[in-house]
């Protein structure tokens, strides 16, 4: 014979420890998921909620940075758009959802100035 005969093993649920062994083997996966939730998912959700609240509270005079890297000063706020002055006499309209960072009016002073 080229292939040796295969013999069946006892089913996992046949013994009394089968259920306990299954729970013990799943425990590391559950613990990893819990660790990921508290170390990664929950803080990210909190940051996103804070950013969303800041975007909703943006007002004229705030300094913003968009997701595309455009830095400017807010001159006008609408429902979905914000008008941003990126240079003297240069104004662009930006979608509020693309705002990545907001520095309030009268924020930190530049270093060594």
Provide the β-strand percentage band. Answer: 25-35%
Mean pLDDT comes to: 86
**Computed structural class:** alpha+beta
Helix content: 25-40%
| Strand tally | 5
**Helix count, DSSP H or I runs of 4 or more residues:** 1
The poorly predicted ranges are none
Shape, per Cα inertia axes? elongated
**C-alpha end-to-end distance:** 88 Å
Most strands sheet: 5 strands, antiparallel
Strand order of the largest sheet: 4-3-2-1-5
Summarize the helix and strand pattern as letters: HEEEEE
Round the Cα radius of gyration to an integer and report it.
28 Å
Tell me what the structure shows:
- By secondary structure, the chain is α+β, with helices and mostly antiparallel strands.
- The protein has one helix at 18-56, and strands at 63-66, 71-77, 81-87, 90-95, 99-103.
- Strand 3 and strand 4 (90-95) form a beta hairpin.
- The termini are far apart.
Write the layout of secondary structure elements.
Blueprint: H1 18-56, E1 63-66, E2 71-77, E3 81-87, E4 90-95, E5 99-103
Antiparallel strand pairs: 1-2, 1-5, 2-3, 3-4
Quick description:
The protein contains one helix and five strands. It is of the alpha+beta class and 113 residues long.
Notable traits:
113 residues, alpha+beta, five-stranded antiparallel beta sheet, 1 helix, 5 strands, 35% helix, 26% strand, elongated
């Amino acid at each position: 014979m080229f292939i040796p005969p295969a013999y069946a093993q006892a089913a996992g649920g046949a013994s009394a420890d089968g259920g306990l062994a299954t729970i013990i083997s799943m425990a590391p996966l559950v613990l990893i998921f819990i660790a990921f939730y508290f170390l990664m998912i929950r803080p990210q959700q909190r940051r996103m909620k804070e950013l969303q609240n800041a975007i909703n509270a943006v007002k004229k005079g705030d300094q913003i940075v968009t997701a595309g890297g455009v830095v400017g000063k807010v001159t006008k706020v609408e429902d979905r758009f914000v008008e941003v002055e990126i240079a003297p006499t240069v104004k662009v309209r930006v979608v509020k959802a693309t705002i990545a960072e907001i520095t309030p009016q009268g924020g930190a002073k530049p270093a060594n100035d």
